[in-house]
Amino acid sequence: MTLSRCAPIALFFLLSHSPTTPAQTSILGFTAASAARQTEIESKFKSIPTPDEERRQHRIFTAEPHVAGSKRNNELADYIADEWRKQGVEDVIIRRYDVYGTNPKSASLEMIAPVHYQATLREAPLDADPDSKNPAISGAWLGMSISGEVTAPVVYAHSGNPEDYDLLRKNGISVKGKIVLVRYSNPYSYRGFKALTAQREGAAAILIYSDPAEDGYKKGKVDPDGPWGPEYKIQRGAITYDFMAPGDPQTPGWASVPGAKRIPIEQAMSAPKIMALPLSWHDARPLLENMDGPLAPEDWQGGLPIQYHLGGEGVKVHLKIEMDNGIQPYYVVEGRIRGEDLPDEWVVLGNHRDAWAFGGVDPSSGTAAMMEMTRALGQLVKQGMRPRRTIVVCSWDGEEVGLTGSTEWGEQFADELRAKAVAYINVDEATSGPNFHGQAVASLAPMLVETTRALQDPSGKSLYDAWKATVAREKEEGKQSGQMNDSGIANESLADTRIGSGSDHTVFLNFVGMPVIGLQFDGDYGVYHSAYDDFFWMNHFGDPGYRYHTLMSQLWGVTALRLANADLLPFDFATYAANIRQFVDELEKGKNMWRQPPSAVQPGEARQAQLDLKPILDAIDAFEVAGKKLNNSLREKLASGQIDPKLAATLNHGMMQVERNWLNPDGIPGRPWFKHILYGARFTYAHLELPGLTEAVEARDWPRAKQQAEILEHALENNTKLVNELNQRLLP
Length: 732
Description:
By secondary structure, this protein is of the alpha/beta class. It has helices spanning 3-16, 32-46, 51-61, 71-87, 162-170, 191-200, 212-215, 281-289, 364-382, 399-402, 404-412, 414-420, 445-452, 463-476, 506-512, 535-542, 547-565, 573-588, 614-640, 645-660, 691-698, 702-729; strands at 90-101, 104-113, 117-118, 142-143, 148-156, 179-183, 205-209, 237-238, 275-279, 311-323, 326-337, 342-352, 389-396, 421-426, 435-440, 516-522, 679-681, 687-689. Residues 150-225 form the PA domain.
């Protein structure tokens, strides 16, 4: 290691352990005496993770490609289990799930008219990056594509969203039986939604390419000279329709343990029925520059120095894809730090292990941070500082294919989790840069914000101040949509409370009914899901010196320890109520005809007037009043320093039940697996608040909207009743 590499590591170590590190004299959920003990525990915990260990672990996980189901990924499961046992993690077990998995056999793409071109479907090695020469790197493939062979014309369909096909129709272009070429682009949509849309439009296949306007040279210098994607970069990924039901497509709603019942794959709603392949812009360019048809609209033009046309007839290609899709084992590694006082209350932590190639950022940065966090927790236990509640930590498999490992584990232990779980804390990508983004259900948002005050950013500021600076900058740049200040709670609280899908928190929030927190540092990152997302990229662009890896280990562990050690769990239901009110206000003031005069209402839509949201707003008010009263009563009880253990158990279990009460057993209409009535995800993976009600309103299905409104109103009433019962328990 050179001096230039050591210097930032040493500097960070000094900064993170200096006397200027923020200290907190009071902590949400703790008595004064408990807060003093917690501060001591946190100080010792934060001193354990080191950048050198983060780098060492990161190298282990990025040494070879390790896609879900592969020999290397399974070896890493064994490695994690062995390391955890050495670190002092308890009850380590590897759980097997037999799932419908996916692997490539071969793929070829040949343009046969108007000129000949054979696509490379490979990523060119970079001289500066030794790992890019690894022969184990796969070619281009998309998980869960079907096998097939077709010769057909190509149509350029921009982002591949429904409105894009509407524009094609207006130009007289049909995609039925043709191959559509679409971009990973803005407006963003998950590649699985692009595939489903193409499938519904009757396309024979879909090609998805990375345009340099989105993540390549139009953004800045490309790898190996900068963080953006080079010419041959291929974004792999799955096209699973997990926005309908994540996990194993053949076991929707129950765990795919060995021997579990399975539905035929033909009946699985999450299994695609279309051929799909990703392309680099190097391979997409010959198709685009030879296309005929109308000139594409200005906002469809990309970063290549050509005019983009819609195509439809001139460019013809021969596409052949052979997949190996079928039942294979995935492995989840599970371990615990058993709680000393409340072993049957769980704080669950997780990161997925599988990667499309090396996974330098996604997920190996998170996996390295997890290993340093567990090492630090193990050392605390060896020093006699065991948490009050049990900390359960998991390494998930198959996240990239359909959020598979976490979903199967969550389905297997759903009843136990609903009885015991305090919260789930997810870290997928620990870092691709210095900008912190924290996500939480609104009841835990104040707790997360407070926690960031106790950690120091490598910049020398507190993490809280660095977070505020990121939010201010992104707001100024207009990047807040879907992030931070697009949050449903006040801007100064920082945390993003709009939670979509796309990572392992999904089963815990949307199926089990657990509060969730998500932690991530990000930055300029143009090599997502490619072979260039590796050790070289991380050491040169993502996190040279591994300072943010170390901070993530500290933050993840401190957040977990605060939930594990709190006297009274730090839930804030008044903040939750305010968050829900904003969701309802936005629905009412949105683009759903609420303010239109009667003359503007289409025939048959007069029933809209029957959807009165005032009962919901009244119920929110009552929930907020109860939440504020509980906040005050809990604060007074903690200030007294005297909490009866039986009373604490009653209060904590009651507060844990609030999130469960947001579940509708019947689920979202059309997507019964998703059961949370406040949080859901659009088919694009984007956040969707009040999903059952919002989708009914957007469909102008007023009877269904009325039914969903009543479900929300009743859930609010039930939680208000529950919180008021807790208030009664706190009366003198």
